[in-house]
């Protein structure tokens, strides 16, 4: 037990600390943007991010995966805040956490195994595109200095590792650009221009709402939607980070951790969050591997808000945009397109459909759901086409030997192959090499037997022998 704790917390101290500091730089503008989307005070999002980071580092199932407030969840909060106020948002956050905790306790993490690799690839690529698009708003009305600083930031990020990897290059890039802006007084937008960071201490807070059944019905649709979106994005991100680190982790434990984090955050006047692939990718790529990295990220953000608020407000947006552009480049699956000719056409189509849906709707959950549905349809079609029916003669008995999967798509194929006017009096349906999956297939078999029997034929059905 102690050895596991040491490995998950203190086996990578230096790299985890630096990774946590670097990750905060990407979290700051996003946290502020998510507050604007939800229609709440920016400090609510900042404190929620701090709270979620600290709690998920302790209770989460995937070390080094970054959880925070999220744009996909903030969109779902807008109507509730506008119609009923921020207190209802706090209550919805608590209820979201409770639902996610139940998901973890009931081991619903296994459901992510139904998401095929083509959809995961589409999820990653569409997210890279959305991140890129989201950064374009910071260029509006800006001079050439903005473009120059973004390019300079990217240059430092990619050139510095050729000389030294002792310090994460994104951290050096943002630090250098901040010092440059402060001492040269360049006319560039900073974090302080996005929102006025005024530190206030959050306290334990019971949402000021009527505790009635009507209130529950108001909260439940939003809370359930938040829980589902948080579930899908968190576990998809976990799958990707597991692949990046080549270490499989518990999805059920992660959902329990997310549930605890969101529940507690709601009681401290916060908004619900989930795992973020961009920030998680940054954390892992600059060396974060343990729980310490996300804890440091939360504590450093707290330090920036309370002690170093002048430094926080001075960070140029251009430098942070450069970091996010680096994330787009790094997480996009370029290798997939280099080898696209070797991929199955259906795999590529599902990936492209997932990307198109996500980019069109700006909703990752919808894209994933549509991608999974298309994958199911492709699998059903392939299974149906692979059903084989051979007609054989066994003495005076006509045998239909069926091989493959018999279900609602393929069962009509069997029905069409049966010759109900055959001269044989004895008919055998040999299903020993097939599996009857659903009610539709069973009803089709019943229909075949009834029609053959009505023709005066003796029908024998041979099923697979139980092992």
Automatic annotation (TrEMBL):
Task: Just give the chief location class.
Answer: membrane
Q: Per its UniProt record, what Pfam families does this chain match?
A: STAS (PF01740), Sulfate_transp (PF00916)
What is the name of the protein in this document?
A: SulP family sulfate permease
This protein's superkingdom?
Bacteria
The STAS domain is annotated at: 387-467
Entry membrane topology? Multi-pass membrane protein
Could you name the Gene Ontology cellular component terms for this entry?
Answer: membrane
To which species is this protein native? Cohnella lupini
Q: Where are the transmembrane segments?
A: 7-28, 34-56, 118-138, 144-160, 172-195, 215-236, 257-278, 290-308, 315-337, 349-381
Q: Where in the cell is it found?
A: Membrane
PROSITE patterns from the entry?
A: STAS
């Amino acid at each position: 037990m102690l050895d596991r704790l040491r490995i998950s917390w203190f086996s990578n101290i230096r790299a985890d600390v630096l990774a946590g500091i670097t990750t905060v730089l990407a979290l700051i503008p996003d946290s502020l943007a998510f507050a604007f989307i939800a229609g709440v005070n920016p400090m609510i999002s900042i404190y929620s991010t701090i709270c979620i980071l600290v709690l998920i580092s302790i209770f989460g199932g995937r070390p080094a995966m970054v959880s925070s407030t999220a744009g996909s969840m903030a969109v779902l909060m807008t109507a509730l805040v506008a119609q009923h106020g921020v207190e209802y948002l706090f209550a919805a956050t608590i209820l979201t956490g409770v639902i996610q905790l139940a998901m973890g306790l009931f081991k619903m993490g296994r459901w992510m195994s139904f998401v095929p690799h083509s959809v995961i690839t589409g999820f990653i690529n569409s997210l890279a595109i959305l991140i890129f698009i989201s950064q374009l708003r910071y260029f509006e009305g800006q001079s050439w200095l903005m473009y120059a600083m973004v390019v300079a930031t990217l240059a430092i990020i990619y050139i510095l590792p050729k000389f030294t990897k002792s310090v994460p290059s994104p951290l050096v890039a943002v630090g250098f650009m901040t010092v440059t802006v402060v001492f040269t007084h360049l006319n560039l937008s900073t974090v302080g221009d996005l929102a006025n960071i005024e530190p206030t201490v959050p306290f334990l807070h019971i949402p000021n709402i009527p505790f009635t059944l009507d209130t529950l019905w108001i909260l439940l649709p939003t809370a359930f939607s938040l829980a589902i979106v948080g579930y899908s994005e968190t576990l998809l991100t976990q799958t990707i980070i597991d692949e990046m680190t080549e270490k499989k982790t518990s999805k059920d434990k992660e959902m329990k951790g997310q549930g605890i984090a969101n529940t507690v955050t709601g009681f401290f006047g916060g908004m619900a969050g989930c795992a973020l692939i961009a920030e998680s990718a940054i954390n892992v790529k600059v060396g974060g591997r343990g729980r310490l990295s996300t804890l440091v990220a939360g504590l450093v953000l707290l330090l920036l808000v309370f002690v170093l608020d002048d430094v926080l407000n001075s960070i140029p947006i251009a430098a942070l945009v450069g970091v996010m552009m680096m994330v787009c480049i790094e997480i996009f699956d370029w290798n997939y397109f280099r080898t696209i000719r070797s991929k199955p056409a259906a795999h590529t189509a599902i990936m492209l459909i997932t990307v198109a849906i996500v980019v069109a709707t700006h909703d990752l959950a919808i894209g994933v759901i549509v991608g999974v549905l298309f994958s199911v349809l492709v699998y059903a079609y392939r299974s149906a086409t692979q059903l084989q029916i051979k007609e054989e003669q066994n003495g005076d008995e006509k045998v239909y030997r069926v091989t493959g999967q018999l279900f609602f798509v393929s069962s009509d194929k069997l029905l069409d192959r049966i010759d109900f006017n055959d001269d044989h009096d004895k008919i055998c349906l040999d299903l020993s090499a097939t599996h009857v999956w659903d009610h539709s297939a069973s009803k089709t078999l019943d229909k075949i037997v009834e029609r053959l029997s009505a023709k005066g034929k003796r029908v024998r059905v041979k099923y697979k022998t139980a092992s």
